[in-house]
Amino acid sequence: MVVWSPFRFNSGLKMANRFAIAPLTTDSSHEDGTATEHELEFVRRRAASGFGAAISSAAYVEQDGRSWQGIGAAHDGHLSSLHRLAEAMRAAGGLAILQIYDGGRIAKPELIGEQCLRAPSAVASLRPGAKTPRAMTANEVESLIANFREAACRARKAGFDGVEIHGANHYAIHQFFSPRANHRVDHWGGTLSKRMNFPLAVAQAVRDALGPKLIAGFRVTPFESEAGGYTLEDAKLLCHELAGLNLDYISVSLDDYRSSRPMRETRVYDGAVERNDAPAENPITEFARVIAGRSAVMASGGIRTCSDAEGAINMGADLVAVGRAVVVDPEWLCKVRSKREASILAGLPKDELEIAGALSIPPRMLDYLLSRPGWIPRL
Fold first, then answer.
1. How far is it, in rounded angstroms, from Cα 179 to Cα 202?
2. Please, which residues have CB within 8 angstroms of residue 105's CB and are 6 or more apart in sequence?
3. Considering the domain boundaries, does residue 379 fall inside one?
4. What is the pLDDT of residues 196-252, one digit of tens each?
5. What is this structure's pTM?
6. Is residue 237 domain-resident?
7. CB 122 within 8 Å of CB 132
8. Is residue 241 part of a domain?
9. In a domain, 127, yes or no
10. pLDDT of 161-177, one tens digit each?
11. End-to-end CA separation in angstroms for the chain
């Protein structure tokens, strides 16, 4: 089957199979952004099952962009932590990729201070209780791009095989691309082409910082389900331009790849939709057509079995990222490989103490998971 075959990126680096561990928010780092032992063990145990690559939880590139208590790549004091994380992610020899992000208007005021909340424009998020950010100055926008570049440099120094830019799920890069969040009238907003300028500038900065021999990826939400959001056609234009920057892959962020359902900004997981103009054809297929082999396409969302993974490949993906399934069952890939899918754990145990111990889930991450009812099933 294709999913067990190797894959070589533009950079020349190779995955032993098509499975990657998706970036998973742990919310479990030390307050200074360094990884805890609980966090490292969570990663190490899952990587040990033989994934072709592991993608880290998102590392913040600026203190003012922290959206949870996760890892940092914002200054050289984070290098030692990043090195330990890269080593844990290589537990079975797979590639280690650092995801980097900025929270923009959905940064957490408790971590950064409410007065530090900034975004492309002074427009509040749709999340309940969201504060209105201040609009970033042109100099701040340039500084944020530089900080993405510096974070990529730190990833290289720490020994990662590459970097994934988090341009999805309503964080800052997504906000710059969104007509709902970006009301600027300068170089960074006002038209579709100008709203693409920030994502493209970050991608180019990261590609330059890594050089040609490391992996540069970009995660994108294929369309916004909220009224007035960007469309699949908009995202296809962005991905066309991203592929022209010699990125190694573009990851399509969906809650379930089959239903073309992206993450909503409210983060409510009740199965409802906010508008009825979902694309007729799956975004994975659409992106694969536009990218046309210049970059790999990575699918995510709802991959629980080998058949699911093959289904995503058949839609046009080259790679698949597994998230919730590997949270619930750390040995998921071993069971899939040995055709023991009937023994895969279907949900988290009811007893919270059992979850933490049996599945090596850090306590703060467990609290985070349980705060999102419906996202991960319970037994």
1. 18
2. 117, 118, 119, 120, 123, 124, 125, 130, 133, 172, 175, 181
3. no
4. 999 999 999 999 999 999 999 999 999 999 999 999 999 999 999 999 999 999 999
5. 0.97
6. yes
7. yes
8. yes
9. yes
10. 999 999 999 999 999 99
11. 31
- Domains of the chain: total: 1
Closest Cα partner for 118 from 167, 176, 76? 176
The structure tokens listed for 55 are 């993608």
The domain in which residue 120 lies consists of 2-329
Pull the structure tokens for residue 298: 């990575």
As a whole number of angstroms, the distance between CA 251 and CA 165 comes to 10
- Fill in the amino acid letter for 197: N
Beta bridge partners of residue 134, listed in sequence order: 118
Quick: pLDDT tens for 336-375. Answer: 999 999 999 999 998 888 888 899 999 999 998 888 877 8
Token pair recorded at residue 2: 């294709």
Domain of residue 255, CATH code: 3.20.20.70
CA distances from 223 to 220, 253, 254, 263 (A): 9, 10, 10, 10
Distances (CA, A) of 113 to 67, 108, 110, 141: 12, 8, 6, 19
